[in-house]
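Ops channel
N.P.: pipeline sanity check, posting one input/output pair.
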């Protein structure tokens, strides 16, 4: 069977890690024709747009995409193209598995958590007002007029919308995923003790939806307490469902638990479109240095293959990655005992080692 998949190389280390994912998928013999399209800074030059229609149309048509990370300027400049892509394509669920791989420096063998992050609203909705602008002061006047709590003038404001529609959709998605993947527990993560109307709504909907899944244990944990518990006893967690911002932060924490961002894959899922990308960003200081770990993007490729129904090939790829990491020889700096270990190999060499393991795996089929 042949597939057409959109490919956004991204910027920074993006092109290197997406090349690695392409190479291992090719070695598996899965026939994918990559429709290469651009977003972010690389798209500006050619299309005079950070998120060209051509890119969105390619993904809408192919319904599956692999994406490298895209830089977002901090403080000023344009808003995140990663967030814009998820919103434009209504990729409402961000799924990030954090599973222990033998051979990493993780102190928590057995960790196996799936993060289900709401992708479309919360503080990431992009409704923000700059300090001292006329409309911001007007908004503050309005709030101070209707609320017993007063906002200091001048202030910058970010709005945190949480809707019952989006909360129901993501929470049901998390329970359905738990059912499909034979997971036993879904934990709702929130700060409803402080944000009674936003996180409170999310928690209330979680409790309602959980009643439809009596076979799955459901509990809730306040986000700060979760951070402490995850660091001490990650094995007690299974599937986590979270609003957008907590989901982003907890994803990186969980990546740290399993040995770092270099091995943490992800998927953004909508009603009929799926876009796969690593949890990590563009790591600009390593651009073009053949330095970073390709595993996170390669494992995002494993998720992509499963999504296409190529389960056998996905299994071979996952095993090939696990074998290379377990042997610990042909791995990048982040998987060595120290970050300056002279035996660390580059992105390309680690990818080649995975390809060699794929060849062995294919022979055993
Ligand atoms: P980052 O994830 O790019 O890098 C943080 C650090 O993690 C790196 O310095 C490096 O030490 C390590 N790291 C990341 N990827 C690695 C890999 N594959 N192998 C080994 N080590 C790796 O986070 P940042 O520095 O906060 O962000 C850089 C840029 O990326 C920013 O512009 C940010 O907005 C963007 N970003 C994009 C995405 C996305 O495209 N989905 C996600 C996160 C950040």
């Amino acid at each position: 069977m042949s597939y057409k998949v959109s490919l956004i190389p991204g910027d920074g280390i993006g092109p290197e890690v997406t090349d690695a994912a392409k190479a291992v998928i090719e070695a598996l013999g899965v026939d994918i024709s990559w429709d290469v399209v651009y977003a972010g800074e690389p798209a500006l030059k050619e299309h005079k747009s950070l998120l060209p229609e051509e890119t969105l149309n390619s993904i809408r048509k192919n319904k599956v995409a692999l994406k490298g990370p895209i830089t977002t300027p901090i403080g000023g400049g344009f808003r995140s193209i990663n967030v814009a892509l998820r919103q434009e394509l209504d990729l409402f669920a961000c799924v990030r598995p954090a599973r222990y791989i033998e051979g990493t420096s993780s102190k928590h063998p057995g960790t196996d958590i799936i993060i289900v992050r709401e992708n479309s609203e919360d503080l990431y909705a992009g409704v923000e007002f700059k300090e001292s602008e006329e409309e911001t002061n007007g908004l503050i006047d309005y709030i101070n007029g209707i609320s017993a709590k007063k906002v200091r003038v001048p202030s910058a404001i970010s709005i945190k919308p949480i809707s019952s529609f989006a909360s129901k959709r993501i929470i049901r998605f998390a329970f359905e995923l738990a059912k499909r993947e034979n997971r036993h527990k879904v934990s709702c993560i929130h700060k409803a003790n402080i944000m009674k109307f936003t996180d409170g709504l999310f928690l209330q909907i979680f409790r309602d939806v959980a009643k439809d899944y009596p076979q799955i244990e459901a509990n809730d944990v306040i986000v700060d307490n979760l951070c402490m518990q995850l660091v001490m006893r990650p094995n007690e967690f299974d599937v986590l469902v979270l609003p957008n911002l907590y989901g982003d932060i907890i994803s990186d924490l969980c990546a740290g638990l399993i040995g770092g961002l270099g091995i943490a894959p992800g998927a953004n899922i909508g009603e009929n479109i799926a876009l796969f990308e690593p949890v990590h960003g563009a790591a600009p200081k390593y651009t073009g240095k053949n330095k970073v770990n390709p595993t996170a993007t390669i494992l995002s490729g494993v998720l992509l293959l499963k999504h296409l129904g190529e389960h056998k090939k996905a299994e071979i790829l996952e095993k090939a990655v696990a074998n290379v990491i377990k042997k610990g020889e042909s791995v990048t700096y982040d998987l060595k005992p120290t970050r300056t270990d002279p035996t660390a190999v580059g992105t390309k060499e680690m990818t080649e080692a995975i390809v060699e393991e794929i060849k062995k795996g294919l022979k055993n089929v």
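N.P.: looks fine end to end. Residues 164-180 form the longest helix (17 residues).
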